[in-house]
Fold:
Amino acid sequence: MAAPKKGRRPAGGPGGQSRPGRALALILIAMVALTGGMFWSGHTTPRLGIDLAGGTSITLKAKADPGQEDAVNETNMNTAVGIIERRVNGLGVSEAEVQTQGRENIIVNIPRGVNEKQAREQVGTTAQLYFRPVVTYAPSAPAEQPAPSASSSTAPKPSASGATADQGKDGKSATPSASASTQGRAVSEALKAPSPTPTPSGSTAPKPSGTPSADPATSALEQKFAALNCLDPKQRAAAAQGSKPTDSIVACGKNSVGQWEKYLLGPAEVDGKDVDDAQGTFDQQRGMWIVNMEFTDAGAKKFSKITSKLSQQQEPQNQFAIVLDGEVVSAPSVRTVLSANAEISGSFNQQSAQDLGNILSYGALPLSFDTQSVDTVTAALGGEQLEAGLIAGAIGLALVVLYLIVYYRGLSLIALLSLGASALLTYVLMALLGPAIGFALNLPAVCGAIVAIGITADSFIVYFERIRDEVREGRSLRPAVERAWPRARRTILVSDFVSFLAAAVLFVVTVGKVQGFAFTLGLTTLLDVVVVFLFTKPLMTLLARTKFYGEGHAWSGLDPKRLGAKPPLRRSRRVSAPADHPKEA
Structure:
């Protein structure tokens, strides 16, 4: 008699069981490692955005130069946003928010407590950056002396950058020294550097075509220089106001000890857009901070031309002033001809070198801006908003927990443990992403986290309902858990994919705080997949082996009677041949 064919092993049998212990061990190791990394980094709380931690919101209004009214356009505004954002973020304000509002306004939000003062100063410096040759300079004081004459001499050379600065390929810093140099001459003649003529001080200076007062424009500029008092903020602001790049100007700047000095400067030879990159770096060999500059191709030609002139001059005519917003931020001297790459060295510290690097890198804005308003969000108001968001989240979570307990009974334990795992991973990742990529938790991000509670709970519900469907069909719990998983898995993946796609699109097409909502929603959606696959499913498999769940206790949420289960499937199996067939001998 032929042996009957072996039946297929049911999905719930030993061969159909997964290895839940490995998956649970993997996610627990990941949770411990991430939590340990959070405590090791010292960042145990997420960074808060301006609307929760408080901070400053600055509104800038773009204005075009006379005759260039069409400069206020979308392209230039977007360029300005990018430069301001890089400039502020370059100072360490990693959650600074810069965006356009309307046609001519830019909103800058600076979180509280992260280099806020420096960032506000940098946001305010919105004019273009220029490199101008130095004609002369002098200590600033309420001066009543006559305009500089051909016989007057300058004071000892300081540095306007807060460091004694020398720029050259040799990379050696200059030593402060007293050097006499003629002040009284026409600016245009000083830059052209014609044949020198002796001066009473013993130094040589280019001889002007006439006396300084012969040219009315030059005489007026010299008188303005003599009368300029850089100690007066109004005079400092008005010193270079209304000037063009092709004009000679007077300007103010601070020296290495923080004292104001006044400068007489020639026309701009290079502007900020010619600087390709600049950064403050530490020179290991010389043990000092320096600023490295790289110019564009066009800028390299201009810089080579001006340094060729300046390297042949005596101090202070061998200096070029870096002028931002009409203020001299640095005035290094030149010893040799430079082109595409240059270095500014001196007694910089880390802060001053990085500050100058940021100004050189991000100083060239295509527009000028007026500050329309500066609004401060207090920490108290931010705390109230954070408290309101947390209360809303707690209420939402409580409602979800209540529903799970009432409807799913014992299964709610699995859901609550899974929600706890998801919450822990979300919190730890938010804390770590703050210093890593500048993520800051703002009010929309809190809303995204609240929405994620529903998304995560929905995944549990899908799986639980699939298991219940299998139990209603008459299967015992262990095979029901395994048979329900493939169907639930497809539904969960499709649902989470749609949520993640929506979050990604929202993040790309929006700006500002709405991106915080989209980022948090996308992050929690990904974590939902991780938690369901590596925690919820393995935990359900393990608990199905227990008596409480496996035998369908009334409070397990899987009681066959309460679910209206059918009689067990496949109670017996036919093994005999049909009656009309003859028996085999």
About this structure: DSSP finds 16 helices and 17 strands in the chain. The radius of gyration is 37 Å. The first strand starts at residue 55 and ends at 63.
